[in-house]
């Protein structure tokens, strides 16, 4: 059973139970995979003739291949049906992009798919993100399968979400799964649109969707090796140099072989080698994470990387951490700046209370990074206007400002007035 969801004036989802219907087959069957220019041109023409929003999804091969490129793009539009496009065989979807330039594109968790869609020339001008809509409406679980079940009373099979979508040819049951992912996405959008409007949150959602589209592509980190899982165990700079050299070697091998780095060598192996500092292949093979078949293929490369790190002069060793452009981790604030720690605690309490009132996660009401930056370096004069201006500089949306600027300013000003800072 599932619930027929409605929304009361406070944005709370309510309703009565109803049977869940399994969604087993696409309405028009499984479409053929588009893998050449002629077939793609037919799809573009059909989609252009269609009407209404365009449901879009993309499947990647995260954990299998290097990077996050799309290996299948699915779309559906009224009057055009569903299309499955192989973006490896058809790497330029700019024609499709032009065909739907005036349409709203419906995605679930858009920030995950937009980068790989951009790589193949597809960039929405108008967006409806069903996951983000669910968050704003207070749904506790916002995965696509759960949302479809709760809102539409339909059950999607989600068993292939973590599959290796670089596989060719793609199995029929995978293609069925992919087609079903966009089968009712527009229907889900329509229901959520109505719920947002009823809850008085539609304009909030529109601002959020526009902000997602404005978000620039991620800039590569200057020291990506510092994100190695378990690096906190590495306590000296010589060992950090080993992490850096092994990470760099692994990245080169992974890129050249189009493999996810973790399939070449797990992070646990990099950290273990940094702690043990092996000097011979035999010592390297005695480290458990290096016993995997893929790791054993490159024993000479791993040992060379460790040797290079051991031979580096002190002046070329990495520092324990690199300074960022933002405040330090919040757990250090009580020692570094007790007044800032009090401001942060007060601001977090305000945001949590407002998020509860409007029934949404705190991070959707106001970005945690904005709260930290505001309270670490607040305006010299705490007023509603100065707080709003500071938050606006940090990318906070107008609807968020309308809810948070005044109570945040009052809370921070109250700390100053009471002399608690």
Automatic annotation (TrEMBL):
Residue intervals of the HRDC domain: 236-316
Region: Disordered, residue numbers: 313-338
EC code: 3.1.13.5
rRNA-binding in keyword set: no
Pfam families assigned to the protein according to its UniProt record, in alphabetical order: DNA_pol_A_exo1, DNA_pol_A_exoN, HRDC
Record-level Gene Ontology MF annotations: ribonuclease D activity
Keywords for the protein's UniProt record, in alphabetical order: Hydrolase
Nucleotidyltransferase recorded as keyword: no
Domain of life of the organism encoding this protein: Bacteria
Protein name: Ribonuclease D
